[in-house]
Amino acid sequence: GLEFAFRAFDDFNASHTSQGARCNKIIMLFTDGGTERPVEVFEKYNKDRDIRIFTYAVGPPAYSTSALKWMACENKGYYVDIPAVGAIRQKTQDYVAVLSRPMVLSGEKQFMWTNIYLDAMGMGMMTTITLPVYNKSEGVSTLQSISFQETLRFTPNV
Question: Residue range 98-118: average pLDDT?
Fold first, then answer.
């Protein structure tokens, strides 16, 4: 399983040299627990720890979750216990906060512009700018996004 995921990254990097931002690489592992620590796999494929591992124990654990916690900690990831299948969607959103931490700590404002597009509501040509907003209150870790749309008045009507 893990070796397949690491090889998939290698294959993608070799064949899609101009695609993807290549800023975050993650593997999300969903399981009912595990007993092995795949040290050799991580040494072979993730020696520099540039692929982050997020582990999720789903349902009542059939096995100890200590190996899952170890995998996440050793690979700059995050461990989550999901008590029931119905909670998967909500619990998997935690990875966004973990991945955004370096941006929060840097203090930089990172505006992102979209490509120009034709508004579906008939307002004409548009562009959107977004800025992540971080809640750095004590004990709180949330990421929100604010976006603004602007009609491009300088372009001819389409």
Answer: 74
**Strand segments (E) across the chain:** 26-31, 52-58, 78-82, 112-113, 117-118, 125-135, 142-151
The position carrying tokens 């959107």 is 128
Which residues, at least 6 apart from 55, have a Cβ–Cβ distance to it below 8 Å? 28, 29, 31, 68, 69, 71, 72, 77, 78, 79, 80
User: Is 36 in contact with 2 (CB distance < 8 Å)?
Assistant: no
The candidate with the shortest Cα–Cα distance to 79, out of 35, 29, 40, 34, is 29
Over the stretch 109-120, which tens digit does the pLDDT of each residue have? 777 787 888 888
CA 2 to chain centre: 17
Name all contacts of 76-83 with Cβ < 8 Å and 24+ positions apart.
76/49, 76/52, 77/26, 77/52, 77/53, 78/54, 79/54, 79/55, 80/54, 80/55, 80/56, 81/56, 81/57, 82/56, 82/57, 82/58, 83/59
Single pTM value for the model: 0.64
